[in-house]
Amino acid sequence: MTARIQTVHVRGASAIRRPLIVLAVCAVGALGYVARDFLIPTAGAIVLALILTPVANGLERMRLPTLVAAAVAVLLLVLFIGGVLAVAVPAIATWVQEAPYYAYTLERKLEGLRKSLAVLNELTSWFEQAATPDPPPAQTPPEKVVVQDRSLLTVLASATPVVLIQAGYAVVLSFMLLIHRNDARRQVLRIPTEFGVRMRLARVMRDINERVGHYLFALATIYSVVALLAMVALALLGFPNPFVWGALLGFASFVPYVGPPVVFVIVAFVGLLVFDDWQRIVAAPLILAAIHVVESQFITPIFVGRRCALNSVAVFVTIAMLGWMWGAVGAIVAVPLLILISTIAAHLPSLHWLEMLLTDDRPPPRRMAVKPPLASAPRRHVPQARRRLLAAK
Known about the structure:
Blueprint: H1 14-34, H2 36-61, H3 66-97, H4 99-109, H5 111-116, H6 118-131, H7 152-179, H8 181-189, H9 195-237, H10 242-252, H11 259-274, H12 278-303, H13 312-326, H14 328-345, H15 352-358, H16 366-369, H17 381-392
């Protein structure tokens, strides 16, 4: 008598698909952490190419060849970043050299606070001594191991070649992506054989160009104006190196919910070091906060709109995860990559759930609010009803 084997039927392979999705997400996360030295400049190059695409398109409309337009766009970006570094690096070096003086200034300004907390410190030490048991008998002290700290210059000298190689790779890759953007689009459209799949790919690439590229370019323009306003405001207050802090606020604005508050805290701390009156100490971060509020609540919604409205929780989690994996560059490219993934998921029926999780909670369109006709009323019954109506007349 042969044993009967029970057959398990899996409908739609849902029992296998979900574990595979979880494993794929874990594998992508592990790969992103292990290959971060390669993926950080690659993601940065993709974001830079998307930002520079409207610039290259505008130069091509001025009758410039594709190669020249891409070269001019990348050259303008390199000159801008080089100018910011040329001003920021000497200022940072000066701050490092004057660190002992600023430490003494901070200690002098906090002297009153320290004296007011002296009683609390004495009580804390008394309780610690009362709770500490008698010391054990003296033993032979172990050998001391002296670890020499690496200086800041040594760390920078060791990290500079790697940073330069990654920056050069990102610039070259963004330049090549700008040159071959039209050819790559045509080659991708030749891959599918079905007309429907080809049209879907065309819509995906069109939305990536319009939604992501123009959105990032608009944000870059708005944040440049924010940096300029912050520079002028800090310069009028007599804040040291206003160009550096304004540029830092502009770059930090690409990291929503996290970047601008960090800049406010740093500016408040620097103001505590360099100013003696509390009016200017408080005014510097408050002015930057006012500029950020006007930009985020009024300017950006007017000029950008809700084309790329993302879920706040998804944005915060993505910034935290990529910031942990890739550092500051990961936090900056987190939102553009999230917009890119949301745009692609919006055109794939199998990833509709991901697009719903990433986008903001908006009311349904008017065409979706109207109930569709019942499926139980086929069209072939309509001519028969018309004949009966005519016969009755």
